[in-house]
Design brief:
two-stranded antiparallel ribbon, Rhopdopsin 7-helix transmembrane proteins, 255 residues, 2 strands
């Protein structure tokens, strides 16, 4: 492990702890509130909660791995010899990133054929993006990181194209009451996802050692909170608005 200051260690340590609590709280909220939306939207809300539940588990493991890699005693930080396992993050993304796109498609309530087509295509592209990005993340030199990062960007560009062109037409079919929230969910998804490549490229800016590690871990963590907990709450709000609009404002939540 790279030489790290106590401040850098504590900053990442606290960020992981905060994110675990955020993901766990979001999971409880989404699953407990799924009865507040119409049956047609409960799957989307349930999947949103599943995304944050998976993230909460992995952030617990990430937190434990980070804590095991260093020991802080009397203000002095020392490496324990146990390597920090960053693979937990990519395993989490491999599971949650496709589901993030699935929940966005489901909440739009498209035709069964269109829903099936978009979830398969977007989910597959998302999984490919993560698989291609991992070799670059663990690469020891910039050229290899750049190569795999470029390959990973190909499915990413396709996903962005689908979000803005493919789903753009479908937004016009949404109830007026929910249309703006759907646009915000799509934009927030794009913005948070666009932040991941920026963090991935931190070493390109000359950051090395513990500084690069700290920036990357904090950057990915912030993006995860927005992309999973933030978008999850928006999915719930969209579901509530659409439930009310489709019931003529008389939707009664389940007891």
């Amino acid at each position: 492990m790279d030489s790290m200051t106590p401040f850098q260690f504590s900053l990442v340590y606290n960020a992981f702890s905060f994110t675990f609590a955020t993901m766990a709280a979001a999971t409880a909220f989404l699953w407990l509130c799924r009865s507040q939306v119409a049956p047609a939207y409960r799957t989307a809300v349930t999947i949103s909660g599943l995304v944050t539940a998976i993230a909460a588990y992995h952030y617990l493991r990430i937190f434990e791995s980070w804590n095991a890699a260093y020991i802080l005693k009397d203000g002095v930080l020392s490496a324990t010899g146990i390597a920090y396992n960053d693979a937990y993050r990519y395993v989490d993304w491999l599971l949650t990133v496709p589901l993030l796109l699935v929940e966005l498609v489901l909440v739009m309530r498209l035709s069964p054929e269109e829903t099936s087509s978009k979830t398969v295509r977007l989910g597959s592209a998302a999984a490919l993006m993560i698989v291609l990005g991992y070799p670059g993340e663990i690469a020891a030199d910039i050229p290899k990181r750049a190569l795999w990062g470029t390959l990973s960007a190909i499915p990413f560009v396709y996903i962005v194209w689908e979000l803005f062109r493919g789903l753009g037409k479908s937004i016009k079919q949404q109830p007026v009451e929910a249309r703006d929230l759907v646009r915000k969910a799509r934009l927030l998804t794009f913005a948070s996802w666009g932040f991941y490549p920026i963090v991935y490229m931190a070493p390109y800016a000359g950051l090395t050692g513990a500084t690069a590690t700290t920036v990357i871990q904090l950057g990915y963590t912030i993006a995860d909170i927005v992309a999973k907990a933030g978008v999850g709450v928006l999915i719930y709000m969209i579901s509530v608005r659409k439930s009310q609009a489709e019931a003529g404002g008389t939707f009664a939540p389940a007891a």
